[in-house]
Amino acid sequence: MEAMVLTAPNTPLRWQQRATPRPGDGEVLVSVAACGVCRTDLHVVDGELPDIRYPIIPGHEIVGRIAEIGAGVTAHRIGDRVGIPWLGHTCGVCRYCTGGMENLCDAPRFTGYTRDGGFATHAIADANYAFPLGDVGDDVAIAPLLCAGLIGWRSLVIAGPAERLGIYGFGAAGHIVAQVARWQGRQVYAFTRGGDRAAQDFARSLGAVWAGASEEMPPQPLDAAIIYAPVGGLVPAALKAVRKGGRVVCAGIHMSDIPSFPYGLLWEERQLVSVANLTRQDGADFLKVAQQAGIRTETHAFPLRDANAVLTKLRAGELLGAAVLVP
Ligand SMILES: [Zn+2]
Ligand SMILES: [Zn+2]
Prior knowledge:
- The chain is built from 9 helices and 17 strands.
- The protein is an alpha/beta fold.
- The chain starts with a strand and ends with a strand.
- The mean pLDDT is about 95.
- One zinc ion binds near residues 38, 86 and 147.
């Protein structure tokens, strides 16, 4: 197999050829058809997440087909198309797993972070954490649903029944969540980097009633806001933009420090919460919703070997929608 491998923090991924791994008990070998590129991949490459085990193959928005099945796997058959998300494994016995919160498992494994991911021609996955995808839809178009869509969905659910919804950072997740929110009958307010007219026009084209810079105040107070950009300064900005009793959801795995802010921004029962990872139920729920809502992802496909250039583009905010690597 071929892979783009991270061997040390803050270094470019290196193209490597390796022996194709065999699936162990309960595992499947997937031939990768497409793998989306997520901001979390940047946090992995930059060494901003704890306990990265090098060398690691990033990538956790994998669409592929089952090439080989390990012992004891009954849920999938050779040739089935599956999606492999960020949540790669959970322990099943901790208080979070048994309490319906497997996203918070004490001993989880995450695809492309603590187990090898999809910036490769092949990947091994725990069969119980691979979503059946059926045959409808394009591999590249589906890939961003597996993290941007899924964690976006979880953050939208946690935002609650907000009619006026702010989205800070209108990238891969934002452009999917905006479509779901509109389909649900909500009003979307999109916040981008100052002067990013392309992203603001893109948000309006997807039905946002308003788009502007993150420092701007929306024309009406928001009921809730979700922050996808990894910028701590957006927390007080979003708290300022939500009404009394409103909620601000931080949806990223990593964020720069949140600057101090006056208590008045939180007062009046405003809530500040974070979203971590996903449960398999989130995946099942969202994949159904994505179909019902007719979500159309804006994707840009690149050859696997261009992974470093794609990460650079993502870092610079040069991509509208989602980037996808194709081996
Ligand atoms: Zn657990
Ligand atoms: Zn992700």
